[in-house]
Amino acid sequence: MRLAPLLILSAMTGLAVFATTPAVLRRLPEPRPDPGAGDAGDPDDPKISYATLATRRFAAIVGALSAAAVAVPALALPRAVLPGWLVLATLGLLLAAIDARTTWLPLPLTRVAWAAMAAATTVGAALGGWGQLVRGLGGFLIAGTVFGAIWLVTRGGIGFGDVRFAPLVGAATAATSWTLLAWALVLGSLTGALVGLVRLGLRSRGSFAYAPSILAGAYLAAAVAWLTT
Fold first, then answer.
1. pLDDT tens, 180-207?
2. Could you tell me which residues come within 8 angstroms of residue 204 by beta carbon, excluding any fewer than 6 positions away?
3. Burial state string for 62-98 with b = 16 or more CB within 10 A and e = fewer than 16
4. pTM here?
């Protein structure tokens, strides 16, 4: 993508996220803890309410990150897959930011992101062929299955919200290629492990937000694809 359209796309994305984030956060219902899903909460680490995050500062940070996040795939990947990555750069990034601050991933917003990803993947398929749609659906299912298995094996060692979040990354990366999906899953897991080691070294207590690492894996994979082509 040429520089001028890239700057316009990034600026419009960032401004849209900045403008809508506070309203979205104020309307999100607070979750009911579900012990069966590994979301029982920690009485020593009380959850920050979503409405508390509805500040201009938080919205500005998320908007700036969204502007940068949409630029990476626009530079590195084919245009036909950009609709799915736009969902990651907006709804996906907002979800990850909420998780980073609260260690919770709001289910209503996750469902909206699923619907947006389904629509984006379909639009992308119209541009890049129906094989892209098949890969996107396959990536959605594979990422959900992988993280669902991790959740089962670790007996809730990750939150079930992460299991719901991972398919967004799976759909966007697999729509590009199976190789990018594999890299995203590997790099996301390595990022999460690194963050966990840092927290262990700092003796940090409380819940661990994993969605930012999952999302980072997608963008690291896109950067690797960009640098190796």
1. 999 999 999 999 889 888 888 877 776 7
2. none
3. bbebbbebbbbbbebbeebbbbbbbbbbbbbbbbbbb
4. 0.90
